[in-house]
Amino acid sequence: MGQLIVQEFVTADGFAANTNNEFNAYEMLEGGTAEFDQSQLAWLDNVEAMVLGASTYRMFVDYWPTPASDGEVIAPALNGLRRFVFSQHLKKAPWGDLPEATIESGDAVQAIRRIKSEIDGAIVLWGSLTLSETFFMAGEVDAVRLVVMPIAIGAGRGVFPAGQDPTLLSLLSAKTYDTGLIELEYAVGASRSKGLSTST
Length: 200
Hints:
The chain is of the alpha/beta class. Helices cover 22% and strands 26% of the residues. The chain has five helices and eight strands; from the N terminus they run βαβααββαβαβββ. The protein has an eight-stranded mixed beta sheet. A hairpin with a 5-residue loop joins strand 7 and strand 8. The longest helix has 11 residues. The protein starts with a strand and ends in a 12-residue tail after the last strand.
């Protein structure tokens, strides 16, 4: 049975997107993310698939399967994952010269339950805040990996759905990086009792 892991970059004041629903805080990070990238590469060894909403897919496909990502240490691992794109409008989801992503156009919760039943390993969701909110509300998120950046933007959109009941989290790991990044991994709710661990 697969585990759905939401990994998001967030600001120090807790926002995964600004008030325009965009996230570009990493562009302001002094010193880059080379140390984190090596840790991310090791973690991706345990990941089997990625889940994206349509908007995040469009951003990813314009970069990761193109020559622009040639200098990215995680590019081969990321491009090697199985890909699922949730969209009611896209008919196809090409990925450069690599196999196309699978389009999921039906009920999102039913689809992620099916995907989790088919995959024995970690499934990562990046960006795609509306989609992740749907999965949080349905109780389908098993773990959260928050990469906290030393930047504050004052207002924006958080990772967790507004107005939901309190979500009990259990810290699995915490790691700091030279550039001021802090990576926090939590099991979500009942996942604490499953012995879930995705740390490297």
